[in-house]
């Protein structure tokens, strides 16, 4: 699970990996409903785009934007069938959320300790995500929102250390750079195959 992360501020990293310009954002420390930069790809034009989207996916049929407060993470095992996500998944709305670090609670001391996780070489990361669009019924405002995918982390050397001992171990999926295009171009079957610990970049815990 990931309820808080730091958006990337590494303009050069974004440019070198995607040939796109990182948009300015008012939020660096992001929680559900906050804006964060994502990269997505049009399957019609084959062009990549970058922009700010709301953390917490709002499906087209949602009655209000508060729906996104509970849809910031989508389980890989059920994303294709859950009503909130299945439309985005079937339409191949795959995105990459650009981050410098994310947070999880560690209970190794016996109580929750907010812990920052980063890429092992202190590089930026791109987390496997899905996106959708929603129109505010009263104002007509068009909102793009997203959810990070999560997988079982019980065998991951770093991420298995988080959450309560009795709770299921889950992690988001910061992809290895060579898999960025594979994710954005994926079919649902290929996307499912990419959602595994072997696809993840090397992670470390901030001291």
SSE layout and pairings?
Blueprint: E1 5-7, H1 11-18, E2 29-30, E3 35-41, E4 48-55, E5 73-75, H2 86-90, E6 94-106, E7 113-119, E8 125-135, E9 142-152, E10 170-172, H3 180-184, H4 188-194, E11 203-205
Parallel strand pairs: 4-9, 5-9
Antiparallel strand pairs: 1-2, 1-6, 3-4, 3-6, 6-7, 6-8, 7-11, 8-9, 9-10
Question: Would you kindly provide a written description of the structure presented here, covering whatever features stand out?
Answer:
The protein is mainly beta and 207 residues long. It has four helices and eleven strands, in the order E-H-E-E-E-E-H-E-E-E-E-E-H-H-E. The protein has helices at residues 11-18, 86-90, 180-184, 188-194, and strands spanning 5-7, 29-30, 35-41, 48-55, 73-75, 94-106, 113-119, 125-135, 142-152, 170-172, 203-205. A five-stranded mixed barrel has the order 3-4-9-8-6. Strand 8 and strand 9 (142-152) form a beta hairpin. The longest helix has 8 residues, at 11-18. It is globular and about 50 Å long.
Mean pLDDT, rounded to whole units?
Answer: 95
**SSE order, as H and E?**
EHEEEEHEEEEEHHE
Distance between the termini: 21 Å
What oligomeric state do these chains adopt? Answer: single chain
Shape: globular
Q: Count the DSSP helices.
A: 4
What is the β-strand count? 11
User: How much helicity do the residues have?
Assistant: 10-25%
- Rg is 16 Å
Enumerate the strands of the largest sheet in spatial order, edge to edge or round the barrel. 3-4-9-8-6
């Amino acid at each position: 699970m990931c309820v808080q992360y730091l958006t990337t501020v590494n303009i050069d990293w974004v440019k070198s990996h995607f040939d796109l310009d990182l948009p300015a954002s008012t939020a660096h420390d992001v929680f559900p409903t906050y804006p964060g930069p994502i990269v997505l790809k049009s399957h019609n034009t084959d062009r990549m785009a970058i922009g700010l989207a709301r953390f917490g996916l709002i499906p087209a049929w949602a009655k209000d934007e508060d729906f996104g407060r509970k849809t910031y993470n989508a389980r890989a095992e059920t994303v294709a069938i859950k009503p909130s996500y299945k439309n985005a998944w079937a339409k191949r709305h795959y995105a990459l959320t650009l981050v410098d670090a994310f947070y999880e609670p560690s209970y190794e001391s016996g109580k929750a300790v907010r812990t920052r996780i980063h890429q092992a070489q202190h590089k930026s990361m791109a987390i496997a995500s899905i996106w959708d669009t929603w129109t505010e019924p009263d104002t007509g405002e068009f909102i793009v929102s997203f959810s990070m995918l999560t997988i079982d982390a019980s065998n991951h050397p770093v991420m298995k250390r988080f959450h309560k001992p009795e709770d299921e171990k889950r992690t988001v999926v910061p992809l290895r750079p060579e898999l960025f295009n594979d994710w954005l171009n994926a079919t649902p079957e290929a996307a499912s195959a990419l959602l595994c610990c072997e696809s993840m970049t090397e992670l470390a815990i901030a001291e």
